[in-house]
Design brief:
The complex is a heterodimer of chains A (about 280) and B (about 450). Chain A is mainly α. Chain A has twelve helices and no strands. Chain A has one domain. The longest helix of chain A is centred in the middle third of the chain and has 28 residues. Chain B has about 450 residues and is an alpha+beta fold. Chain B folds into two domains: about 240 residues, Rossmann fold (3-Layer(aba) Sandwich); about 140 residues, abc- transporter (atp binding component) like domain (Coagulation Factor XIII, Chain A, domain 1). In chain B, about 25% of the residues lie in helices and about 30% in strands. The two termini of chain B are about 45 Å apart. Classes of the chains: A mainly alpha (about 280), B alpha+beta (about 450). Chains A and B meet through helix 2, helix 5 and helix 12 of A and helix 1 and helix 3 of B.
């Protein structure tokens, strides 16, 4: 009955999605479609976007800079683009959710003030929307790899295992940021800068091995480093991921998600007073 | 047993923190309870009340008395600073205009969105979708984004959605004031019907509406519960209080045009003040709109209402009438099947759906019924002195039936066949004004003069 009861049990993290899944999925669909509303190609844009980016990366890094990921590695000019793209894909899930979280409540005053709305579902909406775009990117990546390399590594499906802990971290931070953003409006700007910094402070544009030993801490503090590397292991190199590390991250992510939801539910009582 | 209660509020209080500068809000977060950077405003203070299942309760009070805050707390969109609220059952609320609507979404998407919010499944909403569209009656606009809607359209859609979500508790915050006469009538019909099966919380400063619709009433004043009890009683107390506090103004506003001098009765059954009134700004002007054949109707359809109109006694159609003057309500019907003893009637309703007056042909044609064959047309004419009516929108329901007063077949009943609007009036505080045959107000000839006690001033309303 009481929508704002504190999540006493950890399963509330999943209940927050499951009990409002119809609403969340419909809003997510609206979010995806709405992004291209009014454009002639509509949803096709979410397909062209990653394809064009992949093409541009190939041209700039593979053809112009002649960058190779591993010195002395393959001479395929698409390789760098594929590696870069797979890293950006994973980081994209993170940044889209985190960047939008602080403004989520502020942009939906009607849901906060005028109706009894499952506000804790709004970060899930963004999550679903970002996962949709990630899925399209994965399809594009798979297609390109199939055409260029002739086959996909058998470890491809393991990307799901890599993404699970990431999603838990991301939804947890989204809840916390969404609640903070109501009270601290400067958070939106801060977060945009922070995610930009995190993008360059993770081995997306360069291999982690390229960082001098004494500066490794600069990227090691960043949890995205782990996820980007693991995603590349299964998507590009065909290696098994660090299962122990992933298990640890899943537990950690779950705790973060739980705390994030608890904080959100605690803070939401004051939303309507402030917005 | 708490399940007998729909709403139970205990010691509700709500304070808002008013910060003079946004940075004070931040300072407060770090200062905790050590320092206060804000001023407190108590919108509600220690308000307790209960609403039993199936009850209709009105909440009245002046602007800023905390009515809307209280409703928001009952609905759960605001948290009380102290006290607790329990509600049992599904709540549908109409708190603000277009509440819960996303302006970028189309009407259709918003219907589904609102359905999900109250907990309906997609199938349930789909099953209700057509009924909602029919109720809102906004046509093609249903596919357009809400931001393109007029206020009236948004309210219609909001009310239509709220009316179809199978709520146990309805909360309405004077949203009905918008919308045209026909729609308000539709809403009032719905509310009256809903009263029979659900719990209704109705906020208004229109005491007539509250007294008429509600069983009980809660009166808020300055955030505190001033009184609660039978609606009629509390509304009277509220009005008394209101008049007392604006006494000066009320004296000036009293109809000064009414001469205090004695009016003697004369032979014709005609209000003697009529000549004065008709020449004054208080003239009871009535604007009459066209017959609306497509208005909501029901019946066996064995007969059809062809036309409803106001006429001058000489027969010209009227688009404008004046209260107190003689008018004719003419109703043309056509029999679609043989009718043994048809009855034609009409009923004038005010904006709240209250039946103000009406009549039918039953007694007139009782001894000599007017049987109609299939295809026969007939016309009923009611000639009467139009009563003085308070300003507002009115509608006329028209019906044709076959049988007797207490046992008949309703062939066609059109709810809002004709609407009319009363612009100005000398009548304010009653349903109708009667043509007075005479009013006397003399100085007593005895030793002591009659002085009007201030408290008696209200008896004139």
């Amino acid at each position: 009955m009481n929508a704002t009861s504190m999540p006493k049990q950890p399963l509330a993290v999943f209940a927050s999605f499951w009990s409002h899944r119809t609403l969340i999925l419909n809003l997510a669909r609206r979010d995806v479609v709405g992004r291209y509303s009014g454009s002639m190609l509509g949803l096709l844009w979410s397909f062209f976007n990653p394809l064009l980016m992949l093409g541009v990366y190939t041209f700039v890094f593979g053809l112009v800079f002649k960058t190779r990921w591993n010195p002395g590695g393959s001479d395929n000019m698409l390789e760098f683009a594929v590696v870069l793209f797979s890293g950006l894909l994973v980081f994209g899930i993170f940044s889209e959710n985190i960047n939008r979280a602080p403004g989520l409540m502020l942009q939906n005053p009607g849901f906060v003030k005028r109706v009894v709305f499952p506000l804790e579902g709004l970060p899930w909406v963004v999550m679903c929307s970002s996962l949709f775009h990630a899925a399209i990117s994965l399809v594009v990546l798979a297609a390109v790899m199939l055409v260029v390399m002739g086959s996909l590594p058998a470890t491809w499906p393991l990307i799901l295992v890599v993404l699970l802990p990431l999603l838990l971290f991301v939804i947890g931070f989204s809840w916390a940021l969404a609640a903070f953003g109501v009270y601290l409006r400067d958070l939106q700007q801060t977060i945009n800068i922070a995610t930009a910094v995190m993008m360059f402070m993770s081995p997306i544009f360069y291999p982690a091995t390229a960082v001098p030993k004494e500066y490794r801490w600069a990227i090691d503090w960043n949890p995205m480093t782990f996820f980007v590397e693991q995603a590349r292991q299964v998507l590009v190199w065909g290696h098994l991921p660090d299962f122990a590390g992933l298990a640890g991250m899943t537990v950690g992510g779950f705790v973060v998600a739980w705390l994030g939801l608890a904080f959100f539910q605690h803070a939401r009582d004051g939303f309507a007073d402030v917005i | 047993m708490s399940s007998e209660l729909a709403v139970r509020a205990e010691g509700i209080a709500k304070s808002f923190r008013l910060f003079s500068h946004p940075r004070d809000r931040l300072k407060q977060i770090f200062a905790g309870s050590r320092r206060k950077y804000y001023q407190e405003f108590w919108a509600l203070n220690d308000v307790s009340f209960e609403v039993a299942r199936g009850e209709t309760v009105g909440i009245i009070g002046r602007n800023g008395s905390g009515k809307s805050t209280l409703l928001q707390i009952v609905c759960g969109t605001l948290k009380p600073s102290a006290g607790r609220v329990e509600t049992h059952g599904r709540i549908a609320a109409m708190l603000e205009l277009g509440a819960g609507f996303s302006p970028e979404f189309s009407g259709r998407e918003n219907i589904f969105l609102n359905g999900y919010i109250v907990g309906l499944t997609q199938q349930q909403i789909e099953a209700r979708y057509d009924a909602i569209c029919a109720f809102a009656d906004i046509g093609e606009f249903i596919e357009q984004p809400i931001k393109t809607y007029s206020t009236g359209m948004a309210v219609r859609l909001a009310f239509a959605v709220m009316a179809h979500v199978d709520a146990d508790i309805l909360v309405i915050d004077e949203a009905l004031a918008v919308g045209d006469a026909r729609f308000v009538q539709k809403c009032m019909r719905f509310l009256r019907e809903f009263k029979e099966r659900g719990t209704l919380l109705f906020v208004s400063h229109d005491t007539t509406a509250v007294a008429n619709l509600c069983d009980r009433c809660v009166w808020l004043d300055g955030g505190r519960l001033k009184a609660s009890g039978p609606a009629k009683h509390v509304c009277d107390m509220y009005l008394e209080n209101l008049f007392e506090s604006v006494q000066g103004a009320s004296r000036v506003a009293a109809p000064a045009a009414e001469p205090v001098a004695a009016l003697t009765s004369a032979a014709p059954p005609r209000d003697q003040r009529l000549d004065i009134l008709q020449a004054s700004p208080h003239r009871n002007d009535v604007e009459i709109f066209e017959f609306h054949r497509e208005a909501a109707s029901f019946g066996k359809r064995g007969a059809r209402i062809l036309d409803v109109r106001f006429e001058h006694p000489h027969g010209e159609r009227l688009a404008w009438a004046v209260g107190g003057e003689t008018v004719v309500v003419a109703i043309d019907i056509e029999a679609l099947e043989p009718l043994a003893s048809p009855i034609v009637g009409f009923l004038v309703r005010d904006r709240l759906g209250q039946n103000v007056f009406g009549d039918n042909t039953y007694l007139t044609s009782q001894s000599s019924p007017l049987p109609l064959a299939q295809g026969d047309a007939a016309s009923a004419r009611f000639e009467f002195d139009l009563p003085l009516l308070p300003p507002g929108d009115y509608s006329i329901a028209v019906a044709v039936a076959d049988g007797r007063q207490d046992d008949h077949v309703q062939h066609e009943w059109i709810h809002d066949a004709l609407t009319f609007r009363v612009e100005t009036s000398s009548v304010r505080h009653s349903l109708v004004g009667l043509p007075m045959r005479g009013i006397r107000f003399d100085r007593a000839t005895g030793a002591s003069a009659v002085t009007r006690a201030p408290g008696l001033a209200d008896t004139t309303r």
